[in-house]
Amino acid sequence: MRSDLILQNIHIAKFTTMEVGGTVEFYSRPQNIKELKYIVKWAYDSGIDVFVIGGGSDIIFGDGHHRLIVVDMRSFKGISLNERAVRAMSGAVLNRVIQIAAKEKLSGLEELYGIPGTVGGAVRKNAGAFGKEIKDVLISAKILNVDGEILEYEVKDLGLKYRESDFDGILVEAVFLLQKADSHSIMGKMKEIIEKRRNSQPRGKTSGCIFKNPENGPPAGFLLDKSGLKGFRIGQAKFSEIHANFIVNMGGAKAEDVFNLIEVGKKRVFENFGIKLEEEVVILR
Length: 285
What we know:
The protein is of the alpha+beta class and 285 residues long.
């Protein structure tokens, strides 16, 4: 094992937007494809599970020790354009991709402006907002499999659904096909979207939406709000007063506080509405 590339017993909280969680046995931030392939092969040969992160949103690690390797893809951040196609590496910040596209008068991603995280996470969870999802503009992606091969897949082969996907491997690069539009209208839409987010979503230490919206029925935030959970807290974690589908770490929260809030949310909503909420965030207990 290359000790310069693979670090041991790392506190993971600082790598997530919720800022909770214990330690991971291994952590690596590869700088290129060669290093990434080395890590994947080492993990496979060693029987170690691989968990990939980018911006660290939409993820909550438990307070204990996790025997896995966290592969941080943030060094893979290249972005290039060719006419209407935008090619972005998995570690590129999604907001940066949207800004660059806007400068080139390319439209199609504005509704996702303000979503935290990277391209890899956005594709993996089929990120969406205001009626638009990643799969609506994604045309292909390159995936590194356990055999060390990088294969290109069309969007239809990635299994993208509401806030989930079913492809195996590590996403390395994504290609989006956008539409030419007037720069004034694009910038106006981005400004409108970011203002909506500022007025309706909390800032600070939060992972984003905790629950998926039910397939049939009101949004999760509405259900939690009507269940009296806005501002409800356990320890140093609470449901936001601004948007009940966000849990905020007020400082020093434990992952267990967050997990307990999640269970309270599920229980209250089921009791009041008969609806079973499903987590949108990825939880590693």
